[in-house]
Model the fold of this input.
Amino acid sequence: MKVNSLTLKYGCNPNQKPAKVFMSKGELPIEVMNGNPGYINLLDALNGYQLVRELKEATGYPAATSFKHVSPAGAAIGLPLSDTLKKIYFVENKELSPLAAAYARARGADRMSSYGDFIALSDVCDKETAAIISPEVSDGIIAPGYTDEALAILKRKRKGSYNIIKIDEDYVPELIERKDVYGVTFEQRRNDYKVDENAFQNIVTSNKNLTEEAKRDLIISLITLKYTQSNSVCYAYDGQAIGIGAGQQSRIHCNRLAGSKADTWFLRQHEKTLGLKFRKGIGRADRDNAIDVYLSEFWEDLLGTDAWKDIFEEKPEPFTVEEKREYLKTIKGVSLGSDAFFPFSDNIERARRSGVSYIAQPGGSIRDDAVIEACDKYGMVMVFTGMRLFHH
Done:
C-alpha cells in the first residue's frame, strides 16, 4: 500500500532524530514490502533505481547495480557470463537469467565494496536473481516488482528483516528538485541529460574507430558516473563497470582508484588467482578479503608468516609484481568515462596501464591539446561529450 510518508529509525547517524521521507504532493512512489529501510538505504535505493532504469533504456538489456553509501560499487547489464566470470563471481552452479547475470556482474565488479550493498534492478526480480542475492551480505533491494518465488526467497534473508522495496516504474518525478543544507534550501533542475550514442559524435583523436562494444561500455560508464559522488571516473568492459573511483578531490586520484580496481578485476581472472585453494568453511567475505590481499602489495609481507594457514589449504604460489605487470600489458579494449574534463595528460598515462582504448569525457580544459596528444601517442579513441556529470 502506498503512503505519503515513512518514519525512519534515524537519519544518517543514530543521533539524527527525528527522520522521515515524504512527498509534498501525492503518494510515495515506493512500497516497503518487507523490513524497515533506513535513511541511507533509501538514498541508495532511489539513486540506484535511476541508474538501472537508464541503463535498461539506453541498452535494451536488464540492468543491476550494487550501491554503497550513495555511490555504485558496480553496475552492469545482463550479458551472458564466461566460465571464468562465473567462477570468480561464485555462480558456477547457478541458473542465470539475464537479470541474474546483470546482478552477478554488478556484485562481482568490486566484491569488497559491495559487502552490505543495496541492490537496484531494472526489471521484476525473478527467482534466479533472488537465488544469486540470497547468500550475499546485503542490506536490501529495490525493483519494479517481484515474482512470488523471488519474494519468498528474499524474505528469508537476515532472519526475515531484509529490506524489500517495490517502486512504481511509471513514476515521473518533478523537473525541479530541492534539498536543505544548514537550513538553506537548494533548488535546481533534475539532471535529465540522456546518455546514448548521440554523446559520441565528437571524436577528437586521430583514431576514430569507436566500436559498437566500446559505445555500449562508454554508455554504461557515463550512466554509472551520473549517479556516482564526484569527482568520479569509471572503467567499463564487457557490459559492466569494472572499476569506479568516487568522491575524490583530485581527478588523478579518482583515476588511480578506478584503475587499481579494474586491475584487480582482471587479475582475479589470472590462472594463479583462479588456482587458490581455500580451506573448507571459509566464508565469501573472507575469501574476497584474502584474494584482495593476495593481489595487493601487502601479500609479500605475509609470506614470512603463517597467517595464510587460516584461509588457504596450501601456501599460495607468489604472484610477483613483474608477473602482474606483464599480464596487465596484454589487456586492451577497456572503456573509460570521466564526469569532468581531464586537466592533465597523466590521466591518460594511468589509463593506458589498465588497458584503456576508449575514453569519453566532457572536454573543455585549457590542456585539451596535451590530453589529445597523449591519446594519439597510444592510439586511443577519445570522445568529447560536452556534458559534465557531477553528482552531489
